[in-house]
Specification:
Blueprint (H helix, E strand, L loop, with lengths): L8 E2 L25 E3 L4 E2 L2 E2 L2 E5 L7 E3 L4 E9 L3 E8 L3 E11 L3 H12 L4 E3 L7 E2 L4 E5 L9 E8 L5 E2 L2 H4 L10 E16 L6 E4 L7 E15 L6 E2 L3 E6 L2 E7 L2 E2 L7 H4 E2 L2 E3 L11 E3 L7 E3 L4 E9 L5 E10 L14 E2 L5 E5 L2 E5 L8 E2 L3 E3 L8 E3 L5 E12 L11 E7 L2 E6 L1 E3 L2 E9 L1 E6 L6 E3 L11 E3 L1
Length: 480
């Protein structure tokens, strides 16, 4: 019997390419050596990391500087990003500084006065263009660790004013940051397409570890994906990969360059990724501009000959440091099971989908799905619940935008209908998605197809002192 060998190896080439010079220049946002703890476009749940994170030497209170001439266009204090500033620059870009520890005077005094006047810690002010002008290198704030921050750092977003796109700020600061380390891959994933392809005789996705030796056979239409990270000189952090290119038998079939995205594209990360893997094919409803297919199959590959197909991944960072990984998929003719589904439960990505079952209605608008989806629908009775439990899919399927779900209330356990809400059920855990009661149903907007039930909230909030012996200054409470 002929053996088919899959070989994945790092070619070990680290190559540096000259990058196109940017006509716009910025000065550094900090007056300390610049190193990154996070880069643009890193994979996050439901979104891309929208900027870059500068290290601040494990401390707060570093001077934060304007990077060009312009003016403070917005001042905010929020729970998510802490103290933050929007600065609109005269060169056509706006920078957002997040997780600051404080602002410089007179902004600091104005914000404090506003907080006392409104009796609110949160702030959202839009000054006039002449109120707080800034020039390149001028201090505007201090670095911090406020909001949902995992450690002291400065997060910087860069927005192109003419388009509203989020841009990778690194090209504008690359001359201040050294990097000669290439990205590294950790594994490959093969995606047989439903009803069109198989891998090792199976319809299931298959992970191939690096340096695997052994037969991996496929037939029909497949896609591939790669789990990989970038690394930089002088740090132990890992980052998102700037560029991924896939070649099959020497021909380029797919490329991604993580350099910009619009707010409307942000949730498309759910279509591009599968867990920690970046797919190298594009779902039909995914219009993310940073992804480009160079064949007629949106980056998918058809294995229809009994021979070896030679795959090559090329990974690059912005500086051009490059790593290459080769592997072989061996074509082996084998049965491809048909795609079995009930027409009623097949949702189309390019049309409105309407599902009505006893006690439940779901409307999925056109363009909310990225590809056709066979819904794994089930109904479960629960004597302790006020409604049936509805499984819209056996796994949570993220949607590009919200859709409306209505679930009927079987038992009115309380008369106050504002206490009813729809909850996402994951195991025994319930997570509220909100909703309103109307004519015996609770209606809510959902952002994923999972398992849902109507729940009722009759438990009042509790205010509990938190570490009272460590209080300094104003009293602090934990509200839960």
């Amino acid at each position: 019997m002929k053996k088919y060998i899959v070989t994945l190896l790092l070619l070990g080439s680290i190559k540096v390419y000259a990058q196109t010079n940017h006509t716009t220049t910025f000065t550094p946002p900090l007056d300390i050596p610049l190193t990154l703890s996070g880069n643009f476009g890193e994979l996050r749940p439901n979104h891309f990391h929208g900027g870059i994170d500068f290290k601040t030497q494990n401390t707060i209170g570093k001077r934060v500087l304007a990077i060009a001439d312009g003016y403070i266009s917005r001042i905010m204090v929020t729970h998510g990003s802490g103290y933050m500033l929007h600065v609109r620059y005269s060169n056509g870009y706006t920078a957002i500084y997040r997780h600051l520890s404080g602002f410089v005077k007179p902004m600091a005094d104005a914000i404090e006065a506003y907080q006392y006047e409104k009796e609110s810690w949160e702030v959202d002010l839009i000054p006039s263009a002449t109120q707080y002008p800034v020039h390149a290198g001028q201090q505007i704030a201090w670095s911090g660790n406020t909001g949902y921050s995992m450690g002291p750092h400065l997060h910087l977003d860069l927005i192109e004013d003419s388009t509203g796109d989020r841009l990778d700020p690194l090209p504008f600061f690359s001359k201040y940051i050294k990097d000669n380390r290439a990205p590294r891959a950790e594994a490959i994933m093969i995606f047989p397409q439903p009803g069109k392809g198989v891998v090792q005789g199976s319809l299931q996705n298959k992970i191939i570890a690096l340096n695997t030796v052994g037969p991996t056979e496929a037939w029909g239409v497949i896609g591939t994906g790669i789990k990989a990270y970038d690394y930089m000189t002088g740090t132990s952090n890992r980052y998102g990969v700037y560029s991924v290119t896939l070649y099959v038998d020497g021909a380029e079939v797919y490329n991604s360059v993580v350099d910009r995205y619009s707010p409307d594209e942000n949730r498309m990360i759910n279509s591009w990724t599968h867990g920690h893997f970046m797919k190298s094919f594009i779902d039909p409803g995914n219009t993310l501009r940073m992804l480009r297919a160079h064949n007629a199959e949106r980056g998918l590959v058809t294995i229809n000959e009994e021979r070896d197909y030679h795959f090559l991944y090329e990974l690059k960072d912005y500086y051009g440091n490059t790593a290459r990984y080769r592997f072989v998929i061996s074509g082996k003719k084998q049965p491809v099971p048909p795609f079995e589904h009930k027409e009623k439960y097949l949702f189309k990505w390019d049309q409105v989908n309407y599902l009505q079952e006893p006690g439940m209605t779901l409307i999925v608008p056109k363009g909310v799905l990225y590809t056709d989806l066979p819904v794994q629908f089930k109904v479960y009775p629960d004597s302790n619940a006020v409604s049936y439990i509805y499984q819209l899919n056996d796994e949570g399927v993220p949607l590009h935008a919200s859709c409306e779900l209505s679930i009927g209330v079987r038992r009115r356990v309380v008369q106050d209908t504002t206490k009813y809400y729809i909850a996402r059920k994951t195991g025994s855990r319930l997570s509220s998605v909100g909703g309103r009661y109307e004519n015996g149903f609770v209606k809510a907007k959902i952002l994923s197809l999972g398992t849902y039930v109507v729940a009722v909230d009759t438990v009042p909030p509790v205010v509990t002192p938190l570490s009272k012996n460590t209080w300094q200054g104003p009293e602090k409470y934990f509200i839960g």
